[in-house]
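Render this sequence as a predicted structure.
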Amino acid sequence: MVHRKIKSTIICSPSTKKFIKGDRYIIVKNPPDETILSQINSIENVICVGGGAVIDYAKIVSKGPIKKCYPTTASGSSETSHSVYWIGNEKKGIKRYLPEKVIIEEKFFKDLRPDMFIFTMCDMIAHCLDVKWSLDSNEESLRLVDEALSLIHDRDKKSLIKAGILAGRAIEITPTTILHSLSYPLTGIYGISHGKALSYLIPRISHITGDNIPDVEYIRDLGNINWELIVEEAYKYDKIEKVNFKISKKILIDILKSVFPIK
């Protein structure tokens, strides 16, 4: 029997395209939408280079596990067995495979913009806090959270990618809760990027819980937001209530509307 060698298809972001040689590549500019469902398991021998949206796209279209995954942000998508896609303004998830090999390659993320560095750091911090607050957290997921948070004190890009991988492993064990539930309608309805939405939410929800949070330049204002609508939409995700503290919708809305000192 003759075994044909299948060439790799590389799925990448616009910023990492410059590293890709050959003509077998797909550039992912936006998070996957419902049209991706027609492409499930459609490509053999997938390699991906990029952040969360790129990895989610690659996991969905890959026939079997991604062969090699080079994360360029702290999204943690390389460590989870599911992918996110959107139907209109509603976030959906689909069960997928974990990549076979995850590789940290500095050249792919050395040019990460300062704002993207902060926002992907906020995504990683939000993963950690959601796990910490979850009713379903356990010894292993909390250990991963502590290890991830300890790495961001270095404030270098490689340490941040490593922290994102650890936080991704934590949410594979203990899914996200209140922060991510609130972030989805901010992205879906207002088009606010995931990391930016979390940057606004982290200090406010932490203010409720009394937790100390990493010293980051968090977003102070998102503009004119209908917070009553955001909270109602967030409660469509039942995981918003799987937290180890109690809060009413009214108090949650009030705290999200509030303006208070943020480092």
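Summary. The domain at 8-111 is CATH 3.40.50.1970 (Rossmann fold). The chain has two domains: 8-111, 114-263.
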